[in-house]
Hints:
The protein is mainly β. It folds into three domains: 1-32, no CATH class; 37-143, CalX-beta domain (Immunoglobulin-like, Sandwich); 167-402, Sandwich (Jelly Rolls). Helix content is 4%, strand content 44%. Strands 10, 12, 13, 14, 15, 17, 22, 23, 24 and 26 form a ten-stranded mixed β-sheet that branches. It has a seven-stranded antiparallel β-sheet with strand order 11-16-25-18-19-20-21, with no helix packed on it. The longest helix is centred in the N-terminal third of the chain and has 10 residues, at 2-11. The N and C termini lie far apart (112 Å).
Amino acid sequence: MVQLISALLCSLSFTLTSASCSKSSGGSGEETPVVPAISVNDVTFFEGNSGNTAFEFEITLDKKTTKEVTVNYSVIGTTAKAGEDFVPATNQTITIPAGTTQKKIIVSVVGDDIKEGDDAFTVQLQNPVNGSLSKQSGIGTIRNDDTKVAYTNTGYDAPNSYPGLTLAWSDEFSGPTLNTTIWSHQNGDGCPGICGWGNNELEYYTDRADNLFFQDGKMIIEARPESFQGKNYTSSKILTQGKKPIKFGRIDIRAILPKGKGIWPAFWLMPEKSVFGGWPKSGEIDLMEVVGHEPNKTHGTLHFGPGPGSTQINRNTTLPSGTFNDQFHVFSLEWKQDQIKWLLDGNVFSTVNKADLGSNNYPFNEEFFVIINLAVGGNWPGNPDATTTFPQWLIVDYIRIYQ
């Protein structure tokens, strides 16, 4: 009779103890089993410089249960590469004994001394037994703790001399810091004069060692995704203005270029004195420009005309295989009175003569200065997207000027 009354009261939503309402009307005395919720945490840690580093993930139940709980898990890559950055796993089983609420999964992360962006992998839970999934994915973030950029010194190398020309000056970038007798930094975002440098670019240029540094006789400009001075990216821009003006001769620059949507490296020249007036009247010479979504194509361009916009002659050439990110290439300019030639790895791919400008003024028989920069975003390359990885590096081996 007591059991019948209790069942009736429960059905009428009267307040009783959970024990009273969980018993069957048949009087068996057994309670409904407690089903715990299963979750996995996120882990962020440095990879280490060698060997393997243990990333410990905790599989947690929100309550104890009288039954053991099992769940399968896999360790899969997102931006991190399975087998290279971490040791993967597929459909493994972990058991949490009855009366306990936690068990650890150890994922081995492979250490190295190569600088790269933070990478991520996922611990994915599935197929729970005696439990339900609450948070079924744990993100492992591998923090970079290295300073060495990986590259190989392969690819084309220019001759050390040319008939009829003498080396006027060069920078082999063999020192620990920027040679300030040749170069100056141009920092900022162009504001307030030409915000976004006239191209709606997204970077803020700095002279920090994070953005420009030296390694094994190479100068490296690094584009970084970070909030700085109101911008979401930083990079560097250097120029020879007021220090090393050039008028005619040959310029060789050996470099490995970055790639990716929204990435825009450039070697270019601007007029030292702008004797014909502001841009574009006094000209602009683009020795090399690559937009990162076309990493196998280099452009050579002249900007000129009465303004306010640019009149331009643009030519380009494409590698037969691979990209400019794979190995070193030499980008060159042969510049003489009334003529400019662009070369890639010693081969001419474009020639512009004074006559090609038609009725426009030809401003390219004056002194110019060199600019090296790595831009992010802008009207031409567009903005970075989900496929763009960071950091990106422009690696310059040397610049040599022959006259």
